Amino acid sequence: MARTNNRQSRSDNRLDSPKGLRSNFPLFRSQDRMGRFSEAFARAMGTPWFLVGMTAIVAVWLVYNSTVPESAQFDPRATNFTLLTLILSLQASYAAPMILLAQNRQDDRDRVQIEQDRQRAERNLNDTEYLAREVVALRLAVKDLASKDFIRAELRSLLEELDRDKAESKAD
C-alpha cells in the first residue's frame, strides 16, 4: 500500500507534464498503460470469439425479448429493442476510438522500426562499400606480390649465375 501511494505521489509531482494533464485515474496515469489497454481492447474485438460471443448475446437477447410474456421483457419488441440499440451504439462509440488509438500506436512503432531498418541498411551499405574497397586494395597488393613462378625463375637464374661464377673461378 505504501509503495502504491509513493508511486502515486511521485507521478502527481512530476515536472515533465503540465498540472492540468496529470490524472488521478489509474488507467490514464501512464500514456503507455492506456495505449496497452486500447491495443488489448482492439485485439480482443478483432477475434472470432468476440464476434461469436456478441452474436450469441444479441441472438439470446432478441429471442428472449421476443418470446417471453411482455411483462417479463426488459427490452420489448414493441419498442424495437431500444435498449439493445443503445448498448450496441455505446459499444461502437467506444470501440472506434480505441481501435484508432491502437492503430496510432502501431503506426508509431512501425515508424520507429522503419527508421531503425533504414539506419541498419545504411550501415550495411557503408560496411559493404568499405569491404569492397579493402578487397580492391588487397587485389592491387597481391598483384604487386611475386608469384611462385616468378620466384622459381629468379632462383633458377641465380643458380645459373652461381654456377657460372663457380665455373669461372675454377677456370682461373
Task: Describe what this molecule looks like in 3D.
By secondary structure, the chain is mainly alpha-helical. Helices cover 77% and strands 0% of the residues. It contains five helices and no strands. The protein has helices at residues 2-12, 31-45, 48-67, 82-144, 148-171. Helix 2 crosses helix 4 (82-144). The N and C termini lie far apart (113 Å). Residues 4-9 have low confidence and may be disordered.
Task: Name the beta content range.
Answer: under 5%
Report the total helices: 5
Radius of gyration: 41 Å
Quaternary structure of the protein? single chain
Q: What's the story with the biggest beta sheet?
A: none
Number of strands: 0
Low-pLDDT regions: 4-9
Principal-axis shape equals rod-shaped
End-to-end separation: 113 Å
Q: State the share of residues found in helices, binned by percent.
A: over 70%
Series of secondary-structure elements, N-terminal to C-terminal: HHHHH
Mean pLDDT: 82
SSE arrangement:
Elements: H1 2-12, H2 31-45, H3 48-67, H4 82-144, H5 148-171
